[in-house]
Amino acid sequence: MISVIIPNWNGKHFLSTCLKALEGQSFRDFEVILVDNASCDGSSELVVRDFPWVKILQLPNNLGFAGGVNMGIKEAQGNLIALLNNDTEVTPNWLEYLYKATQKYPSAGAIASKVLRFYKRNIIDSAGDVYRTDGTSAHRGGGEEDKGQFDREAFVFGASGVSAMYRKEMLDEIGLFEDYFFAYYEDVDLCFRAQIAGWKVIYIPEAVVYHIGSGSTSSLSSLSVYHTTKNELAVICRNMPLGILIKNLPNILLARILKIFFYIYYGRSKEYFKGLAWFILNLPKLLSERKKIQKTRKVSINYLNSIITHRSLKEYLLKIKKILFP
Fold first, then answer.
1. DSSP secondary-structure letter at 285?
2. Which of 163, 181, 287, 176 is nearest to 229 (CA)?
3. Prediction pTM value
4. pLDDT band (50, 70, 90) for residue 258
């Protein structure tokens, strides 16, 4: 059985579209758990009234994406866990294609969907995730027009938490999301740990999802900047092997400098430095976690190098130009 887990925080206006699409799935052996992060907009009441087949896990406090999903996983009955954002609409065969992928690729601990933009359905939101040598993550193909360039199955670095499937066996081995990530980069951290432990991530283009995006917070909100800053650094510290870290230290530092100017430009320097302070204060804990994670490594440094994307100086210059001359 598949357990579909939907984290929700004041997303009542999204839920009907999301849940109606799940009602029409061709694959029928699944349960849906809505994890409500202390919403105050009547989300749970709507689900009880219109979708009584959905299990509701009502949390007294907002635990964020990471903590909320973890609570849902602990309640799940399935041996496969499918995560789905509340601001999505899945296609009728979404679960079927994800399930078939788990049978076809036994080494894959995570399955990535093809995520398209909800209002511009010819634009790609994510065709799997990439992780770069500067310690940043990006959606593969994000913003590109969908011309079939990502219509082949492919092993990728990561699966976006917008829509991903995980083997419960893998989660039992490497652990769940880290609660303190709260939101942003928790899926990157999980997939990095999975790759280190020898699990693969496969992208399945037929498993299509339409995503509104920024349904709960915007990318430049105080919450987003703070958590993105601390979590980016936490992922580097916890997961990047020493050889890769030393080799790419100039890239990592350059990216951080660029981010400082970026957030100053957009008036978010306070949140950035707050995230940086969190990282420094929690460094002993992160280094302790790093030791445990690195001990689980079953793959070579060469393999990890092969799935991390290099970011050139030209890309940085273009990024700076975009900030200064938008």
1. H
2. 181
3. 0.94
4. confident
Looking at residue 312, what is its pLDDT? 67
Residue 88's DSSP bridge partners are 211
Which one, of 221, 250, 236, lies nearest residue 294 by Cα? Answer: 236
CA 285, 257, 196 angle in degrees (round to 5)? 45
Contact criterion met (CB below 8 Å) for 143 and 152: no
Residue 309: strand pairing partners: 132
Q: What is the pLDDT of residues 212-222, one digit of tens each?
A: 986 455 567 88
Considering only residues 150 and 258, tell me which one the structure prediction assigns the higher pLDDT. Answer: 150
**Domains in the chain: boundaries:** 222-324
Q: How far apart are CA 199 and CA 157, in angstroms?
A: 11
As a whole number of Å, the CA-based R_g of the chain is 19
Across 59-70, average pLDDT: 97
* Residue 238 contacts residue 289 (beta carbons within 8 Å): yes
